[in-house]
Amino acid sequence: MNFLKLLNYVGKLHRGTLISVRHYTPRRALMYVPGDDIRKLSKAFTLNVDCITMDCEDGVALNKKETARNTIRNILDTEKNVVKRNYDRAVRVNPVTSEFCQCDLRAVLTAKYLPDTILLPKVDDKEQLKWFLDQVNSLIIERKEIIDLIIYVESAVGVINFYDNCKYAIELSQTGKISLAGVVFGSDDLCASIGITRSSDGAELLYARQKIVLISKAFNLQAIDMVHIDYKDLAGLKKYAEQGAQMGYTGKQVIHPDQIPIVQDAFLPSKRQVEWATGLLESFQEHQLKGKGAFVYKGNMIDMPTMKQAQNVMDIFKLTSSNV
What sequence ranges are listed for the domain HpcH/HpaI aldolase/citrate lyase (predicted)? Predict the structure, then answer.
């Protein structure tokens, strides 16, 4: 079966499978664009990238914060880039501990069109999440939309409290207007928090990097890996992106258009993975129709965690293969 036929078959299989297909928004490359730079924003909207993050935080100087939020608000107030688009339109606000977060939220969440996703940096504890979610819910209580939330782990305290923070955010989102969808590993801020000296292989970050992806997957969240700040080092970027994908990360932060294709390819399931997952889901469906639970596939006893892994492969492939 060639790759194009396989893609068509995947669609038929998903429509017929007995496993429910949950909504999944690909964010293989999460690209930051300064909110005060209309030229860069305009260019970003023409790129083939999964997630465009209009930034109010680190990418914007202190004296440009108001300009950034107003520019983003103007974009959200127009229909341009709202319909017929294939990217996740996100906004990164300033952290709760800053003086800017409330103003960011008021500007962004009272726009004519809401962003798909809000990114909240530097989340350390449940009190910050409670304040943030209360603000969001109060601003969009009358609207029908549900916004995805992505939180950042960027400090020693944030790493320690990460499990409790995820659990708390999910509990609060059950009755609110925002849904926790993913987590970003903020490696550079974590280094500053701990006093880490970065090495070329990143070994000093291994514990935090693995803990974040482990807990993220425990809550069925996307995990966005650390940024590669040397944007000209494409070979190093490829190595780190492939390593992150092997560890279980679903995407990576990018800061330059040249990084996008390398990152998005690294987090796209291979033909071999897709064929494995397709066959496994088909076999599962056949056994379910016969009333059989456990079954053997290619010599291995299949359990639900394996089925979930296959479903994850198909979720990503199905939603990122429009350009195949």
Answer: 28-257
Residues forming the active site: 303
Domain 29-266: assigned CATH number: 3.20.20.60
What is the domain partition of the chain in residue ranges? 3-18+271-320, 29-266
Question: Over the stretch 218-235, which tens digit does the pLDDT of each residue have?
Answer: 998 999 999 998 999 999
Q: Which residue has the tokens 């819910």?
A: 137
Band of residue 322 on the pLDDT scale cut at 50, 70, 90 = low
- β-bridge partners, 301: 296
Look at residues 106, 110, 45, 37 and name the one whose alpha carbon lies nearest to residue 67. Answer: 37
Quote the tokens at residue 44: 């970003």
- Classify strands 147-153 and 178-185 as parallel, antiparallel or unpaired: parallel
Phi, then psi, of 292 in degrees rounded to 5: -105, 135
Amino acid at 303: D
Q: Are 111 and 150 in contact (CB under 8 A)?
A: no
The string of pLDDT tens digits covering residues 140-194 is 988 888 899 999 999 999 999 999 999 999 998 887 889 999 999 999 999 999 9
Residue 307 near residue 17 (C-beta atoms within 8 A)? no
Whether 162 contacts 217, CB under 8 Å: no
Is the Cα dihedral 157, 173, 115, 128 positive or negative? negative
Q: Give the residue numbers of the binding site for Mg(2+).
A: 154, 189
Which residues, other chains included, contact 103 with Cβ-Cβ below 8 Å and sequence gap of 6+?
A: 65, 66, 69
Predicted structure pTM score = 0.82
Binding-site residues, in ranges, read: 92, 154, 189
Q: Where are the alpha helices (DSSP H) in the chain?
A: 3-16, 38-44, 65-76, 101-109, 126-140, 156-160, 162-173, 187-194, 206-218, 234-247, 260-266, 271-289, 304-320
